[in-house]
Amino acid sequence: MLLKNDFWSLLCRGRKKKIVTLLVVLILLINAMFYVSLELYNTVKRKHKEPWYNSLHFDKDSYVDETGMRVIVGHYVGGIKGGDLPDDVVNSNNYAPVPGAGEGGRPVQLSQRELITARELYSLHSYNILVSDKISINRSLPDMRSESCRSVEFNLDNLPTATIIIVFHNEAWSTLMRTVMSVLNRSPGVLLKQVILVDDASDRRYLGEELDKAIAKLDKVQILRNPTRTGLVGARLMGAREAVGDVLVFLDAHCEVTQGWLEPLLDRAGNDDVFICPHIDLLSDDTMSYTKSIDAHWGAFSWRLHFRWLIPGSDVLALKSANPSKPYPTPTMAGGLFAVRKSLFWRLGGYDEGMLIWGAENLELSWRAWQCGARVEITSCSRVGHIFRRHSPYKYPGGVAKVLNSNLARAATVWMDEWAEFFFKFNPSIAAIRDQQTVADRVELRKNLKCKSFKWYLENVWPQHFFPTDDRWFGRIRSDIGGCLGVPAGTPGVGRPASTVPCGNDLDLDSLVVYTPEGRVMADEGLCLQQGNGRAVWSACSDSSKQLWVQKGPRLKTPSGLCLTLYLTEKDDKDKDGGFITSKKCIQDNRQIWHLERVPWR
Ligand code: LR7
Ligand code: MN
Question: Among 64, 148, 50, 155, which Cα is nearest to 380's?
Fold first, then answer.
């Protein structure tokens, strides 16, 4: 028998002994380091639980979906509390670039102390102004274009010229100037006719004379001042009226354009009746890092007419993979970043000047473009970063809801035909102000341009849409044991396990679904009921056969003949929501019985 001591003495003779001692010390050290890191991690985690940290990072109105695309959920309804920042803080320009900060589009990290200040100042712009002020207005950025985009060559002599229009209201000095400088630094001189800044009645001191002086030093840049605040539509129109370039290129005032951004836009805008948008990358509102947004996205909208990024239909995906440098169609544009031939812009009616401050003009312009014979497209070869904000930092005279609802009412009334009735029916507060809108001139415009119907638009531009139609059933699918199929309100639904929601009333969109002739159960936001692993989930609508539920009597069956079944646990409230939905072998069981209650959608 080998004793413990013998074992050690055998092993640890002479030099070997030293090695083993060293090893033991090393192991102890590693252990200690592990504990220290664990402590550190916990401290950081605790810090992240503090409310201010959350206000900087996440909130219920925004999320990054499973593909990594920042999705803005809902409209901006009011900013976060502004606090009482002293006048000099609000009105001073604290741009103080730190060499190297943010170069290459890298994130800027702040010290603990700075983070506290950053948090206090956050409400000023709804992004991290302390970080922005540390980054040079001439910073370098990564080139996010694909290989195929980089290899496209443009003959600059054949491209139309551009007027860049940047409207702003109380923008930060550093983000505004970085937008301007990125344009000046990365646009070929022969193509860039002018850069027009339009100040939409800002009241920040640093945007007055100080800005005038800075702009005066820049070749080709000019500034117009809107005497009263009209909102972005009025301001953009003011800029467009002064434009001398062939193509108008609109940018928000907190963008950064990258290498080669302009040529693909001008090439496409010059050649066709198209509103062409760049691929919008993400500038972090927290660190100002430049990151790629997902490759395949296009713009659409929800039942409540909130703009949405979605995955394009399979035909567009196929087109994109066959030719990654080719522009592809999109049902709507986000609104802030696009290029269009000046003549086309005016021929199609510019903008609806009745739209005030912010919102809905992006949908209106997109519908008008498509319905009146033009197109809306995205080119992945033009990459522009934009700071996505979670809240609107500025004031909405008259109140956010009123401003936004009026704009939406205008857009819906003029362009949506029967679907306007759908929109108004389920949004009674917007229906209430419907008649206050004077849109006769826009209706006239539609008539004069001989524009197509919204039905045509849905069928041809966005055939994957999830709106009710005359040949789609619309209503409530009520379980025999209580609750209705639906996506719980206020939560991003993609991939969430399906359960039931309270059945609500006839106007409650959360418990209403579209049921297509093929057997798809579609909720708002393009979510379809899909049999997942072990349970049904709400998933992005697709061609998948896992999303088919064929009605057989009071049952909904999968293609393989299983029945949609609701299991309630004891704590689930039978009248309200909860439960577990999946497909199971069909048996005599009222958990498999579903009542389809039709609700007229218009
Ligand atoms: O009263 C105002 N006057 C202005 O001049 C209000 C705003 N503005 C300016 C503002 O300073 C900014 O430069 O208008 C521009 C757009 O305002 P944002 O940045 O608050 O808008 P957004 O980026 O949150 O929202 C998107 O939807 C808007 C709907 O009205 C506009 O179409 C924005 O241009 C549009 N932005 C983009 O498309 C960028 C991509 C992000 C997305 C989605
Ligand atoms: Mn913006």
Answer: 148
Give the 3-state secondary structure of residue 139.
coil
Specify the residue with its C-alpha closest to ligand 1, atom 16.
Answer: 252
Closest CA to 47 of 106, 119, 152, 141: 119
Q: Is 334 in the pocket of ligand 1 (CB under 6 A)?
A: yes
251 Cα–ligand 2 center, Å: 8
User: Which of 183, 203, 223, 252, when mutated, tests ligand 1's pocket best, judged by the most ligand atoms within 8 Å of its CB?
Assistant: 252
Per-residue pLDDT tens over the stretch 354-404: 999 999 999 999 999 999 999 999 999 999 999 999 889 999 999 999 999
Burial class (CB in 10 A: 0-12, 13-18, 19+), 88: exposed
Q: pLDDT tens for residues 213-222?
A: 999 999 999 9
C-beta of residue 85 within 8 angstroms of C-beta of residue 121: yes
| Rounded CA separation 293/313 (Å) | 18
Q: Say if CB 65 and CB 71 are below 8 A apart.
A: yes
On whether the pTM is more than 0.90, the answer is no
Name residue 418's amino acid.
Answer: E
165 - beta bridge partners? 196, 250
Any ligand 1 atom below 6 A from CB of 171: yes
Q: Atom of ligand 1 at shortest distance to CA of 388? A: 41
Ligand 1 atom with the shortest distance to the CA of 226: 5
Which ligand ends up closest to the CA of 179?
1
